[in-house]
# Entry
Amino acid sequence: MIKQERHVLVIFPHPDDEAFGVSGTISTYREMGIPVTYACLTLGEMGRNFGNPPFANRETLPQIRKKELLKAAEAMGLDDLRMMGLRDKTVEFEDDEKMVKLVADLIDETQPSLVISFYPNLSVHPDHDATARAVVRAIRRMPESERPTLYTIAFAHNTKEVLGDPDIIHHVEGAAKKKLATMNAHASQTVWMMQDMEKRLAEQDPEALKWLHYERFYTYRWDQDFE
Amino acid sequence: MELVQPAHLQELIDSFANKDVYIHLETTNGSYASHFKEGFFNAGAFIRNVVVKYELGKVAGESPHRIGLKLPYGWVYAQGITHYTLDEHGRLLMAGLDPDGKLAVSLEISETPFTY
Ligand SMILES: [Zn+2]
# Structure
């Protein structure tokens, strides 16, 4: 059961962050007619997959990933994609207040009932954690009654110890094709993973099917704030 | 990018000597290295658009190659370079890619600044 929303704001630092665990949810919201804004902070400029033989170099990668992101947005039926112009791997070094303002401005403009991002300090990549901190701080500053709900993703090894099990489980089997199309749109990052994944899906591997059909989130709890 | 041909790369490096050039230098294990391999000591460094003028640049060793640039008061050095290209903007892009095509090191030289 996926709750009705007024407007959903998704904030991640890298093109493809949305693909693995949220693209089924975004696609489903779009099918429900719910506006979704996706703010992607960087273009994954510092990605490492260049291929052998290489299909990209450090200077062409951003344009490749930008095209992939546009294609992914199309696959999800998403028509409000914002590319925020930061550089991959530098988000945590930006001014903290500037980051909070970036998020606050997006919230002011889109008036979301739901924000989706990472969980601070449980999301492995420094850019993920920095994005999550900015999102939590921006929402925390709002009057309690006006705060949007915040769904978070966490995948550090100690996530279960800290947060337990996700409280929100979206059944997104109906959007499976769009989810796979989104994953495949980010080919420069996912082509190796998807070769393996499609084989496992063809064999009806239960873990692979679970990944495709379900997306899991932790509702951010202000009574258990990270700071 | 193509596999390094040392003599050709040497010519290209020579062509940027004694000029103000913008440097991009980067080493990386990837941000997920210690997530996938517990206890992995993840280290790397990155500088971009720092201007230097080198008097001598050399390609050394068999592939993967080492590249050293001698500055009036210091050095720039990269180890593990396997691939290179002179791109359409006249920038010399060098990279060290592991067998899976993942970048481990990058050294780039340009007479104009690299984008952000
Ligand atoms: Zn990411």
Summary: Residues 8-222 of chain A form a domain with the Rossmann fold fold (CATH 3.40.50.10320). Chain A has one domain: 8-222.
